[in-house]
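User: Before I run my own analysis I want an independent prediction to cross-check against. Here's the chain; please return only the structure tokens and, at the end, one sentence I can use as a sanity check.
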Amino acid sequence: MSTAPTLLALVDVIDAEGHTRHSHPVHANPEGQARLRLGRALDNDLVLDDPCVAPHHAELALGPEPEGHLTLLPSLNGARQGRQHVDAPDCLQWPHDGLLHLGQTTLRLRHAAGALPLEQALARPTPMRQRRAWFELAALVLFVLGVAGFDSWLTQTPGNTWRPVGMAVLGMAAGVAVWALLWSLVSQVFQRRFPFLQHLRWTLVALAALWVLDQGALGLAYAVSLPPVLAVAVGLDAVVMLGLLYVQGRSVWPRAAGRWLGLLLLGAALITAVTVWKREQQQHWFQPLYLSALPPPALRLAPLRSPDDWLQDAAALREELARKAQLDPVTGEPADAEE
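Assistant: Structure tokens:
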């Protein structure tokens, strides 16, 4: 009676998101060893459909120890293990649960003698935590929608209807829902899951933080008479938005978190450069040109200045304002030069 061959190892083919696309079993011979040839040709033991892999790319030798011995065959691209690049006829040790790159294909070796990682506990929130999570989400929704309605109400002239306020609230609700839905669809494509509530929570937290930062900066700048605080608030707003995009992108592409962060920083640098370039002719680059509404006078902590002081400051600006008045508002060049 013949016995089934012993399964010695599995070679997993990993996709770009770190998931196992398929696994190739490696069975041991009577001596407890196995050899596996990898490449693009159909006579290999493990056929890799990768144009950057040679017809016969490498040969893997396995024994009872939890590691493999990979011999590189003649190829253009060799193999990469971490930061180490190996070409034929060199060899390398392939440890249990280690990753290896042949061409554009990522492989993982799982040896039968290798130690298994500990079982992870399944997240099972208690009914109390579930109720608290839903309460927090509802509070975030009400806060963000209330802020949208309040900001819209402040911009309305007395006697207007409540329709613009309602439209602002509905617009904010639709925008947040669509944003979370799009990220959830991307997660469904790359992660095979649909975490709508997770993306919704992250988005609401970011919007709430933006409003608190903006209002806090406005109140502080008014209280202590320090306008540069408003410029700092603009930078903090950008940090919050970058943080939101990074967290959502990392949840979708965890293996590319570093590249995603680099792309976001590059985009932020380009946007900053364009903003500075467009506002070169303005008196303030990042601060608002004026405030349509002021906080209550009771919040004012800075000492009051006399009208004579304000008139002296305004007189000092006369020459600079006269010079800018002669500039073309579109090109920023003197109007006389174009004529």
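Sanity check: The chain is about 45% helix and 15% strand.
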